[in-house]
UniProtKB/TrEMBL annotation:
Pfam families: MC_hydratase
Full protein name: MaoC family dehydratase N-terminal domain-containing protein
Source organism superkingdom: Archaea
UniProt-annotated stretches for the region Disordered: 171-206
Organism for this UniProt entry: Haloarcula nitratireducens
UniProt-listed SUPFAM superfamilies: Thioesterase/thiol ester dehydrase-isomerase
Entry's Gene Ontology molecular function annotations: lyase activity
Length: 362
């Protein structure tokens, strides 16, 4: 009888032998299929992650988020922080990245997120504790090989228990057994009808500056002129290996759609795709570069409309929706924006509503 534990019993470098071994080998899978999730289930995500100044600065530098409050102690103190905090985009990406192995590593596409709330600043050295609850599951009528799952996720300071950020997100998740549907449609479900022609304003106005009063004045002028306050941002950022693979791995996001080109070759995208939070952060950085942002507040109705792959260039477009002079400290007012990221073909890839405190004129 052959001792198959003997190192010389099998020549694994022999191509024919190795090919036969692979055909017989059982794959030890990572991630979970759609059928695993049931409404009301609670999940606690390990291993957690320790926020770092290096990680925050790496994220900001790569995504063009250059707000000095997250780099410099003097500006941080002026904004009312206890020290130099980590950037909120980095915090959000880390919290979501930790959840990937349990929720979406199988390769489902990130469809959207809403009710993103930053409850307090986070600082380097904070160890995260992240939990999720399944709030909805449904079959995808457009892609029978996938289901759609919505989770509520919360990131806390592991030591103090303080809530840092919370949100609700929706993903497509591969099914173990495809559902019986017609299989038609696109990345997200739709009703298949042609949209009506858009009703658009004749004029688009841009604010004259970056302060709260500039946005408030532009909205006032737009109402008088039956126009909208909307503008595009000049900067663009082309997706490279660091953005598509490096930043997700730094947040523990191991989803195969960002790292396994072989698996993604036959997928709807045809290639590895960017982490949605990277695409989003780049678009927001373009917008923030044209604003005097004081503090981030909340996000809603974030959606991802098309795939972003290596070599795509992400640009930004902003529409101003509302100004609230009574929200926030004396030195800032709240502005609500709609932000759109679009690619080199002018195709929208991300959209979302954001409320931020914008600095007033000094």
């Amino acid at each position: 009888m052959t001792d198959w534990s003997d190192p010389d019993a099998i020549d694994c470098a022999d191509e024919d032998a190795f090919d036969a071994l692979l055909d017989r080998a059982t794959t030890r899978e990572k991630g979970r299929y759609f059928e695993f999730f049931a409404e009301g289930d609670d999940l606690s995500h390990d291993p957690g992650l320790r926020l770092s100044q290096h990680g925050s600065e790496q994220w900001m530098g790569q995504t063009l988020n250059h707000d000095p409050a997250y780099w410099r102690s003097d500006t941080a103190r002026e904004r009312g922080f206890d020290g130099v905090p980590v950037h909120p985009d980095y915090l959000l990406a880390c919290v979501m990245g930790i959840t990937v192995e349990d929720l979406s590593e199988k390769g489902g596409y990130f469809l959207g997120r809403t009710d993103v709330e930053f409850h307090r600043p986070a600082y380097p050295g904070t160890e995260l504790a992240v939990t999720s609850r399944v709030v909805d599951t449904r079959t995808s009528s457009s892609r029978p090989a996938y289901g759609i799952v919505t989770w509520e996720t919360e990131g806390r300071d592991r030591e103090t228990g303080d809530r840092l950020v919370s949100y609700e997100r929706t993903n497509m998740v591969p099914r173990r057994e495809p559902a019986a549907t017609d299989g038609s449609g696109s990345m997200a479900d739709g009703d298949g009808t042609d949209p009506d022609p858009p009703d658009l304003p004749e004029t688009l106005l841009a604010p004259d500056g970056a302060r709260f009063e500039d946005f408030e004045s532009a909205l006032s002028r737009a109402r008088d002129e039956n126009a909208a306050v909307a503008y595009r941002h000049e900067r663009g950022r082309t997706m490279d290996d660091q953005l598509v693979a490096g930043l997700p791995l730094a947040t523990l996001n191991t989803a195969r759609q960002h790292h396994n080109r072989d698996e993604m070759a036959d997928s709807p995208s045809g290639d590895i795709v960017a982490y949605g939070d990277v695409t989003r952060s780049i678009a927001l950085a373009h917008a923030r570069s044209d604003e005097a942002t004081y503090r981030e507040r909340r996000f809603a109705d974030e959606r991802f409309h098309a795939f972003v792959t290596l070599g795509d260039t992400v640009y930004g477009f902003t529409r101003v929706l509302d100004c609230d002079p009574d929200s926030g400290p004396d030195r800032a007012g709240a502005v609500t924006f709609e932000h759109v990221a679009f690619n080199q073909d002018s195709t929208p890839v991300y959209s979302g509503r954001r409320t931020a405190l914008i600095q007033r004129q000094q």
